[in-house]
Amino acid sequence: MTKTTRPARRRNARQKLAHLGSVLLVVTAFVVPSAGIALGYASSLSAAQSLVPDAKPFLTEVSLGEYEDSRDVNLTLAWVDGPQLLSPGWAGVVTQVALKPEQVLTTGDNVVQVDGVWRIAAYTTQPFYSLVVPESDPSEVERLNTMLTSLGLSAGPGQTWTWDTTKGIRQLGEKIGVPAASDLNAFDPAWIVWLPAPSVTLSLVDIRVGMAAPTQGEGFAETAPMLASVLPAEEDGVVLPDPGDGEEWVYQMGDVEIAFTGGLQSDAQQIAPLAATLAASKPETARAALLRREPFTGWEVPTSAVYVDAQETTCVFTADRPSGYAAQVVEIASGAVGVTRVRGELPGHASLLTNPAEVLVDASCN
Asked: What are residue 358's phi and psi, to 5 degrees?
């Protein structure tokens, strides 16, 4: 927390001492330039910290504290038409339908039942196009293992077909009602309906119990427009954090959070939660809070106390010496109206110069 001491006896004392020190330095420099005490005093007031004549320094007391960082940002949202749900190639009669308009469909949800066997939704990087067996292309095996894992079933590691892969297929077969599921040794792509995103919102369902099952590539449901990208706007003094600084940032909109990775974000899985929240209205812009996941330790100081020198180094100045001010190099972590939160190698407590631009002449942060 920052405690301001204006006006305060301590500040006034420091003002008088600084002013007196400047006068004594000038007088001593002219009267006894060879005196050792004068030389020592002058060396502590470097040219980088020369004082403006008659300028009045203002001080405030600051202490280390923990702060959360949040800033509001405007997001530009790009939408694309939602894809149709397509049949992977079924034969038989539709015996049950689990879909309805405005439903959010995600991996593992039942879609339709054909001849008593459920077909479920699954998000994968691309659709399966043939039976997957131990001898299949490693990329197909990897996609199968990844899908089985997302369904909470047994799965092998990476591109390797193991007993766990076989066990996962049998678990899937038993879950959806495949006859003789305990004997399965291959994955049939007709068991799933491919999702192009982790979740989609249905806008139209065109399949009914009793009709012939749709054939390969035939659409049976339409989805709402999908969020294609999210782009933050750096405006109104809002500074976007560097996602490469090792700290985790998130966008927050109501109860929904998505990771902030900097700039344009178009990964479907990453922005899916935001897409589901906004799908009904499909706004072109939205307001969100950009949050630092973990709080940081630093000082909260008046914005006027932050100084940028000719080398574009940022610092603040503390009144640690009767002869001048000590620079503390800092990084701006966050801020609000009139205050800035900074961090660096800072002491637990200090007297801070709040108006260095008025008091110091061509000061250096180093």
From this structure: -90, -25
By CB neighbour count within 10 A (0-12 exposed, 13-18 middle, 19+ buried), where does 31 fall?
exposed
pTM, full prediction:
0.55
C-beta separation of 193 from 217 below 8 A: no
Alpha carbon distance 249, 267 (integer Å): 16
Is the bond preceding 7 in cis, omega lying within 30 degrees of 0? yes
Counting beta carbons within 10 angstroms of the beta carbon of residue 296, is it exposed (0 to 12), middle (13 to 18) or buried (19 or more)? middle
131: Cβ–Cβ under 8 A, 6 or more apart, which residues?
A: 186, 187, 188, 189
Give the helix ranges, DSSP H, for the chain: 9-31, 36-44, 138-150, 163-176, 268-278, 356-359
The H or E element containing residue 320 is: strand 314-321
Please name the residue ranges forming H helices in 112-218: 138-150, 163-176
- How far apart CA 47 and CA 362 sit, in angstroms, is 8
- Count of CB atoms within 10 A of residue 269's CB? 12
Instruction: List the beta bridge partners of residue 51.
Output: 360
Tens digit of pLDDT at every position of the chain (366 positions): 333 333 333 333 333 323 323 332 333 333 333 222 222 222 233 334 677 777 888 999 999 999 888 888 999 999 998 889 999 999 999 999 999 998 989 999 999 999 999 999 999 999 999 999 999 999 999 999 999 999 999 999 999 999 999 999 999 999 999 999 999 999 999 999 999 888 888 999 999 999 999 999 999 999 988 889 999 987 766 778 887 777 889 999 989 999 999 889 998 888 988 887 887 788 999 999 998 888 889 999 999 999 999 999 999 999 876 667 889 999 888 776 788 889 999 999 999 999 999 999 888 898
